[in-house]
Design brief:
It is a single chain. The chain is of the alpha+beta class and 468 residues long. It contains 24 helices and 5 strands. The chain has a 4-stranded mixed β-sheet with strand order 3-2-4-5. Strand 4 (388-394) and strand 5 (399-404) form a beta hairpin.
Amino acid sequence: MSKNPLESFGAWTAEVSDSWPADALEWAHREFIDVIAVMIPGAAEPATRHAYDAVRQWGQGPCAVVGQRSRLSAPWAALVNGTAGHALDFDDNFDPPKAHATTVLAPAILALAEQENLSGAACLDAYIVGLQIMGRVGQGVNPTHRNRGWHATATVGVIGAAAACARLLQLDAHASAHALSAATSMSAGFMSQFGTMMKPVHAGLAAKGGIMAATFAQAGITAGMETLDGRTGMNRLMVGPDYEELRDTITHVEHGQNLRYEVDSVGAPLLITEHKFRVKRFPTCGAIHRAMDGMLDLRSQYGFQASDVTSVDLYMPRVHFNNVMYTDPRDPLQAKFSAEYAVGCVLARGDCTLADFRPEAVMREDVRGLFPIIHRHPVDKLEGEFPTEVHVTLKNGRTVKAVIDMPLGSKKAPFSDAQYWAKFDACCDGFLSGRDAAELRKALERLPDLPQIGDLMRHLVLPFAQVA
């Protein structure tokens, strides 16, 4: 294997066998179910509808746009569908790159596969390949890249999407390496966009960029071979001038994030089965899910209500609090990145659902009145070093505590197939008729065996986003 990460990753992308383990294919299949489910309500969100209005004039084409009757060219369909998948922050997280992986990979894969009349099996294969490369690039720049404010869903995601699309187009090792390099020129996105419409658009831009980078390489456009690990490569520019010092002195490694690109064993371990996913139970930033799980566990165990509580103390890694920065959210987008709203919501209402992020729900006093009693205690440790602690003090003077190291839906406590489909049903409710939802489910169940991915996508070309 080449010691150049672009050449090593490109060779693996092009040449690895498509004889994947059964559990890898099963995980890939489940994540397509999850992301298509969340795309359905996400398609009706303002950010997605505005993105669609902006790009639809730039090119009709053969590719489905979720919630719309018209079809677009592959890059624009991927942009809109990627935005839809991320608009509610209800899509999965993948730990190695610290990114929302599927809402970037799946829209790019589905659009390009529909353009090329490819099968469901080809889509699953491309997903596993793209996920592996996204993870390997993410491990080479994280945890510092993410902790310093880069939105890895966008910055690392586009490179994973390029790998997936190169795989679909059957590019050789040379062209695949150039596709990955081209994608670094589209790598951008700041966490300062959290709580705005632009944050979900990041996922759409990364999906679009993956299609463009692979198609550029297919057309013969070449790119530099030092854009990941050269003197001005991604690691030195998007980690920082102290990159080498950080790399050489790292002592605690989580999720394989060691600030080194793995070039000798790109495909082993296979990251999809080694790390699995964090599938979301709540439509909020994943950084607060451990605290939400802890609060619900305490309510269930001790039977208290919000009116019984005098204070809630949250002890969490500082990097988690950095993601949920809004202490007084004023709209649904900000509420998705608010520790106070998320924990207050499950304390007051016993759950946190899509309905809790309607504008009127965010402003209700039952939750907002709890903000003053919810206290932040940042801890300067990584999430693997320090579990989230939720301390609840009751009016009778008793203090109870929950300690949560991994949320429900993660590798430690994965969703069952029934829970995936329950989430699918909840996302379809109010957007698809019972018949349309049932037909979509049948197609999703058959995804690995579909001769053409269009047999799935045709069930999403319905104008429910316009109606909503």
